[in-house]
Fold this sequence. Notes:
- By secondary structure, this protein is mostly beta strands.
- The chain has helices at about 135-145, 150-165, and strands at about 15-20, 25, 30, 35-40, 40-45, 45, 50-55, 60-65, 70, 75-85, 90-105, 110-115.
- Strands 1, 2, 3, 4, 5, 6, 7, 8, 9, 10, 11 and 12 form a 12-stranded parallel beta sheet that branches.
- The relative contact order is 0.09.
Amino acid sequence: MFSEKKDNKNVDPGTSQNRINAGTKIVGDISSKGFFRIDGTIEGNVNTPSKVVIGKTGVITGALTCENLDIEGRFKGNLDVSGTLSLKSTAHIEGEVIVGKLSVEPGATFNASCVMKGSTKEKTVHTTPTPENESDPDSYRDKKLQNYPFDRSKRNQKTKTEEEKSN
């Protein structure tokens, strides 16, 4: 009876829940295969192939990679969600977001650049060139518009050039 060894290998780590309670602050990277509920503060990177819930008092500053994410609290950084990102009315997000599906309740704050998975611009968010003269954002915008295929000024110039050639 006492000599039998208990086999703990049957526990599935993907079904376990990790909870970071309010008042807890973690500085560093976290990696787990289980579900996360975050009501405390994390300064660092979180990586899980499962679901993450950031409660009303939860704050993450850093990078987060997960399958599905529900946010009621605050997030600042790079976000990569392979499934669905659900922003509740109390959510506040700043940074760069790559997501499969997006659901936003009225009242949520979403100050982020967002790329939907499956788009042609996937993962190019991080390679955006920076302006040479950051004090002059107009010159940077003008340079970006030069390559924009639907810029009317370029179309008008092409039309005028074609008209001159035909005359």
